Amino acid sequence: MWHQPWTMKEGFLIGGGLIIVGLALELSVGPVAWEAFAWPANGFVLAGFLTIIAIIFLLRRRLYTCRFIGTYQAAIPTLVYAVVLTIIMGLTRQKTNGTWLNDMLSFWPFVLMYVYMAVILGVVILRRLVHLTSWRRDIPFLLNHLGLFIAMTTATLGNADIQRLKMITVTGESEWRALTQEGAVREMPLAIELKRFIMETYDDGSPKRFASEIQILTKSGKNIQTIVDVNKPVEVEGWKIYQYGYDTQMGAKSQISILELVSDPWLPLVYTGIYMMLAGAVCMFIIGGRKRV
Question: Who has greater pLDDT, 246 or 205?
């Protein structure tokens, strides 16, 4: 073992080593503090991460370890570990500030494994870019792999910039303050006035639909009058406004509507990665169909 060329045995040992390092970090410093990576910190982290991938790629001819990172012997064991950890996440109830397995997105072994997988993915993409041979094979490959890389990295680093706020609106009054998940009051770049609360009920009186007719005023001068439904949010200047709740004691006569305001500035980049993967799949389907013909 550890004699060149390395095999998947070494790949599994490297993955296992990352899990051990992750457990040591979990015990010594606690879970990953994603809030520390809010903008602009996550921008610097992304730039540094891309630089590390480029350095590993450039050193592949001098250092065998760097060359091994771009091989399937490294990729397959890493993918196995990542899948197992993801299955565990799917089988356990996830909540913020939970125990190790109940907060996998902040669990160091989970994070390190996905970081390592992103490094492997980045090195593979650079290697394919340098050795382009056939657009029929290379374009679908690059769309799929680069799309996955973009979606993974931006979704992870953008997590710290997601804001979820609750705004309590009262009929006839403009409200520009919202509450964070910790209960802190925050002034918003827009004001919302509840014009009318709407509720439709079944024959037994239980709620069938509830929504809010609202007026939105923004600092940029926009004046929008619209209806926010439970499954039909309104998007205004980077904020999505959802219908969240109401005064349950008053029911259809409620003069209060609770709205949820969500901002995720990195989401367009995540969607870009997903659309690239879809485009890659379509290209593979078209090219495969032409070959059969």
Answer: 246
What tokens does 246 get?
């109401």
Beta bridge partners of 49: none
**SS3 (DSSP) at 74:** helix
Q: How many CB atoms are closer than 10 A to CB 250?
A: 12
**Cα dihedral: 172, 176, 181, 183 (round 10):** -90
Name the strand (E) or helix (H) holding 201. Answer: strand 185-201
247-269 average pLDDT score: 94
Bridge partners of 227? 213
What number is the average pLDDT over the span 104-108?
92
Nearest to 244 by CA among 162, 167, 163: 167
Q: Give the residue carrying structure tokens 């909540």.
A: 95
Decide: residue 162, CB within 10 A, 0-12 exposed, 13-18 middle, 19+ buried: middle
How far is 186 from 188, CA to CA, in rounded Å? 6
Task: Give the sign of the dihedral formed by CA 222, CA 224, CA 230, CA 233.
Answer: negative
DSSP letter, residue 255: S
Tokens of 221: 């001068």
Judged by phi (left if over 0) then psi (alpha if -120 to 50, else beta), residue 12 lies in: alpha
Q: Which amino acid is at 64?
A: Y
In single-letter form, the type of residue at position 113 comes to M
Distance CA(232)–CA(226), nearest Å, equals 11
